[in-house]
Amino acid sequence: xxxxxxxxxxxxxxxxxxxxxxxxxxxxxxxxxxxxxxxxxxxxxxxxxxxxxxxxxxxxxxxxxxxxxxxxxxxxxxxxxxxxxxxxxxxxxxxxxxxxxxxxxxxxxxxxxxxxxxxxxxxxxxxxxxxxxxxxxxxxxxxxxxxxxxxxxxxxxxxxxxxxxxxxxxxxxxxxxxxxxxxxxxxxxxxxxxxxxxxxxxxxxxxxxxxxxxxxxxxxxxxxxxxxxxxxxxxxxxxxxxxxxxxxxxxxxxxxxxxxxxxxxxxxxxxxxxxxxxxxxxxxxxxxxxxxxxxxxxxxxxxxxxxxxxxxxxxxxxxxxxxxxxxxxxxxxxxxxxxxxxxxxxxxxxxxxxxxxxxxxxxxxxxxxxxxxxxxxxxxxxxxxxxxxxxxxxxxxxxxxxxxxxxxxxxxxxxxxxxxxxxxxxxxxxxxxxxxxxxxxxxxxxxxxxxxxxxxxx
Length: 458
What we know:
- By secondary structure, the chain is α/β, with parallel strands linked by helices.
- It has 18 helices and 21 strands.
- The chain has helices spanning 13-24, 38-51, 67-73, 92-99, 113-119, 143-151, 173-181, 190-197, 217-225, 234-237, 254-266, 281-293, 309-321, 333-345, 356-363, 374-377, 399-406, 430-451; strands at residues 27-32, 58-62, 85-88, 105-109, 128-132, 157-162, 198-200, 203-204, 207-208, 211-213, 229-232, 242-250, 268-271, 274-277, 295-297, 303-305, 326-329, 350-352, 369-372, 389-392, 418-426.
- It has a seven-stranded parallel sheet with strand order 3-4-2-5-6-1-11, with helices on both faces. The protein has a six-stranded parallel sheet with strand order 12-21-20-17-19-18, with helices on both faces.
- A hairpin with a 2-residue loop joins strand 8 (203-204) and strand 9.
- Helix 1 (13-24) crosses helix 2 and helix 5 (113-119) packs across helix 6.
- The protein is globular and about 70 Å long.
């Protein structure tokens, strides 16, 4: 049975407002929560700009899984049916074929931006650029950012879309907004941006490891970008379910905590016939996170099993769910393997949500447990039909991946009135610190969103 096409009049008022904002601004940043329909907003603006003769050829850069969304969205709306989309993914030959096809919008994944600019041999003759998930261009030293900046002066109109603009703080905004306006608002050089708005924080002699905001700098930054930025929260415009966060604490015993503390203080610890060591603080945080989860990679590459507290907690959560579907987020491969071994022993139906068929099974409520890796599935997946409970087996540092993973369930289309996010946390370990950092980063990001928030009637 064919689904009835949506009409342009079915768009929400805030979507119409956002579309008009793009039409009126050659440089636009839309900070939109997941589920607010940023794809149809942008495609509607593109369609209108093409009809007005202001745009002829549009390049959309996005995560590879989101590429399909741009292609399928035009099939849902009557007013977009004539818009031609060409998806440039796959082999180099397939990408070139897609990029040379007669089309209106060309969609390419962000990893292939350096190839497109430097190696494809194709002319970069796009007059409009859309960067879906602008936050993936927050690193001004990345190959993708440098490649895109080479051709940025050729582009007349640019739109940046993201729901997580400052996942690591306001320093992220420099590269994101330089890509949009070529440095007009926040400056052309990172050194100038730092000097104007930040002070050195953690240092070692002349080496600066981190920066902190100058007094009043946040408001100055918000003011500088306000004219080209709108932000919207899903809770303001959609009937969103209640989001409930909770912690499930587990406790390491004395010997386990002694090993953890030795690793933390000495950067190394002996484990039976092997050793676990860290060369620097960054590696150490990863090792400590593994300790908290219950297993760690040794220096030889083997897996040393420390405890099963989190596995036992996950088993309790699954049992309490009484067959209700649960989404479990994991980070380390040894965690995944231990979880799968446990689920097999419990005779629980489960699958890694890394294929179209497994995603279909999840959304059809055919799985009791869906296993998801935030880095592989943070963007572009609609999983809200399969359940309303997310369990973090181990917490992660990335606010962007954290929020995007939560948004797989907490989004428009979720039929449950509540979405529950449970964090299995090893007490007195780095787990607690990571959660505190995520809260702080979230507060920083929320301050930006509130500062440039579009006041549109729901």
